[in-house]
Amino acid sequence: MKTFLSIIAFLLLTAPEPTGQVVIKGRVTNLSDEPLSGVVVMIKGSNVSTLTDADGKYFITAGPEAKVLVFSLRGMKRLEEPIAGRTLINIVMEPADAGKPGRQDRMNTKPVKNEVLCEVQEEADYEVAARVAYDRRRAYPAGTYAKAAWHHPPYVEQKSESYAGISESGYRDPLREPYSTFSIDVDNASYSNVRRFINLGQEVPKDAVRIEEMINYFKYDYPKATGEHPFSVYTEAGICPWNKNHYLLHIGLRGKDIDKTELPPSNLVFLIDVSGSMDSPNKLPLLKSAFGLLVNELREQDRVAIVVYAGAAGMVLESTPGNNKETIMQALDKLQAGGSTAGGAGLMLAYKIAEKNFIKGGNNRIILATDGDFNVGVSDNVSMEKLVEEKRGLGVYMTVLGFGMGNIKDDKMEIIADKGNGNYAYIDNIQEARRVLVQEFGGTLFTIAKDVKFQVEFNPAYVKAYRLVGYENRLLADRDFNDDTKDAGEMGAGHTVTALYEIVPAGSDETGLPTVDPLRYQGSDAGAAAVSAAGKVRYGDQAAGSDMRPSMKDVPRELCNIKLRYKDPEALTSKLFSKTVGPDIKKAGETTDRYRFSAAVAAFGMILRDSKFRGTATLADVVTLATGARGSDPDGYRAEFIRLVQSKK
Fold first, then answer.
1. Residue 492: beta bridge partners?
2. Distance CA 532, CA 69 (A)
3. Distance between CA 501 and CA 143 in Å, rounded?
4. H or E stretch covering 41
5. Dihedral of CA 420/190/336/285: which sign?
6. CB 239 within 8 A of CB 588
7. Any residues with CB less than 8 A from the CB of 53 and at least 6 apart, and which?
8. Has residue 10 got a pLDDT over 80?
9. pLDDT mean over 139-157
């Protein structure tokens, strides 16, 4: 018997380790057998993961040690499925609230085994952040978070979040105000922030809803840029979905695409908030995971420095080549949260480091990651705005990444991004981090045009009134269009920008539109002073202030004229682009997917804001419109939008 056992032991000890890997495939659907895209499929206990495609299909390579697959998607119950030698695993997911108890049950405070945050506890927004595991003994002092788990955060009353007030733009009469002038906005923080509120079952603050950012979260497959200008311009006009008596004009820009391998070298400064307000699983730990994704994209010619701030600011990593990934990640992993928030001091130090390592012709950028809760030194909105405005002339751009919940200072972060020649994104989960910092790496971090301004002149022969949907915080005076000293938005490689105008057609008998009495002393030239700095009106002197609407025979057969001004990234003088839009209006069945989907998002934003301009729009209408316009959706963002709207019904 002993001899037999010895032989068995010998065979076990000398047996070769299994080295083979298998590819597991499958499809993920909901209870109605509809495909679920964007589902995170992860090998439990590892950082190996993938996402389902638009058809709900996935494949993932599993090593011999893989035992369990984890399936997670916002709004759906998290599932674990044993592998057990299977190569085909199909999954049906249920809504997260199916048979679920109250919110209090989400507050899991059981100790985490071995004090390692390496697996998710529920189906929450932040669960996939755990795919990059953190050793808590390395990341936090002994005893810190001794009983914390990586869990869905409990319900938090939004008592200290702050948002800039929004007063919706109303209708304008082209006879009195022929020009609509605004700065482009490629930020999309509002959409992911709204998504966070909805996923947590909370009421969305009206001022958190910036409709233009919701629209611009999605790509619309505009034609590629060709010719001398670094973007293409697309237009389409149709019947407005929420008011059949109005038109809706869709204007889209697409920045030229640049292959990642052709991007110029980057001089990046990670400016990271490590104050006490960041001491939460969905803040600093998620932040580290997000930056880890970006570090993985860096090349040898790129450089990274890390500056942190709490009660004071300090540098934790000198500018380091991007291929020294282990060094950069070690510096990130050591960060701990605690103390007050000297954001102004952190910004000044970050600018100093960026200037010191400036790369001429390169991408010089500060990436600020924070919840925006600055409370020491330069911290009020006006002072922060002044500081960033003083520094933007250096050629250093700004990207702001917002994290967390409960005390988000959205207004402050928006100001820093806008005034710092940059962009602003809200990171609510690791998928969003991947989208911003990996999938859209070039557009997020490399500017192809700065100070991009729109000016649209409407033809009063065809337009009785018009209103710009959203962009309230980006409006410019008409005279600012030709003023190259006036700051405006930046456009990145491959970025798309979309703007919608709701139009009351000429000849409409609609009443209640705003009117302005004719001026006493200027007659037909009443509006000349108002438009002189912006240039001569295109559609006749009548449009400058006369009560007489020009006849169609007196003006070109055009709905409007679009002008854009922009500067090359290192230029001081702007260039002009112009395009006219014909008066042809498409019927409901003739419009494109891009037109209908953007309209669906705009309608949802108006519903969330309880806008007086929402017309007949309902959540059911939004779902119908968006579903019919889903089109190509490889990353599942449009499908996710439809689920969000459905969850509000």
1. 447
2. 66
3. 56
4. strand 40-43
5. negative
6. yes
7. 37, 634, 636
8. no
9. 32
Q: Which helix (H) or strand (E) holds 575?
A: strand 575-581
> Is residue 157's pLDDT more than 50?
no
Decide if 461 contacts 554 (C-beta within 8 A).
Answer: yes
* DSSP state letters, 228-251: SSSEEEEEEEEE-TT-TTSEEEEE
Burial class (CB in 10 A: 0-12, 13-18, 19+), 359: middle
Q: Is 402 in contact with 286 (CB distance < 8 Å)?
A: no
**Spatial distance between the Cα atoms of 304 and 251, rounded to a whole number of angstroms:** 37
The letter for the amino acid at 23 is V
Q: What are phi and psi of 291, to 5 degrees?
A: -65, -30
Whether the CB-CB separation of 158 and 208 falls below 8 Å is answered with no
Residues whose CB is less than 8 angstroms from the CB of residue 351 and which lie 6 or more positions away in sequence, other chains included? 366, 391, 394, 396
What count of residues does the chain have?
Answer: 649
Amino acid letter at 620?
Answer: A
CB atoms within 10 A of CB 178: 31
Show Cβ contacts of residue 556 under 8 Å, excluding neighbours closer than 6 positions: 459, 538, 539, 580
- Which residues on neighbouring strands pair with residue 576, listed in sequence order? 565
Structure-derived torsion over alpha carbons of residues 232, 233, 234, 239, reported in degrees to the nearest 10: 160
Token reading at 428? 């609510």
Helix axis angle, 410-419 to 189-199, nearest 10°:
160
In the chain, count of helices (H) and strands (E)? 15, 24
Give the ranges where 156-283 is alpha helix by DSSP (H).
Answer: 189-199, 211-215
Neighbours of 611 (CB within 10 A): 19
Question: Dihedral of CA 279/280/281/282: which sign?
Answer: negative
For 77-115, the pLDDT digits (tens) are 889 999 988 999 999 999 876 654 443 333 232 332 322
Closest CA to 147 of 107, 115, 191, 192: 115
From CA 649, how far away is CA 646, in angstroms rounded? 5
Whether this model's pTM surpasses 0.85? no
**Joined tokens for residue 124:** 């929450």
Least confident of 23-27, 63-67, 278-282: 278-282
Q: Which residues touch 414 (CB under 8 Å, ≥6 apart)?
A: 164, 187, 189, 400, 424, 473
- Domains belonging to the chain, first-starting first, are 18-139 (2.60.40.1120), 179-258+449-648 (2.60.40.1230), 260-445 (3.40.50.410)
Determine the Cα–Cα distance for residues 355 and 548; give it in Å rounded to an integer. 57
Bridge partner list, 69: 43, 81
Which residue carries 């005893």 as its tokens? 143
DSSP H helical ranges for 66-188: 136-139
Strand partners, 233: 253
Q: With contact defined as beta carbons under 8 Å apart, do 613 and 603 qualify?
A: no
Q: For the segment 535-589, what is each residue's pLDDT rounded down to a tens digit?
A: 678 886 654 555 566 666 667 899 999 999 999 988 999 999 999 999 999 998 8
Q: Which residues contact 324 (CB under 8 A, 6 or more apart)?
A: none
What element of type H or E holds 430?
helix 430-434
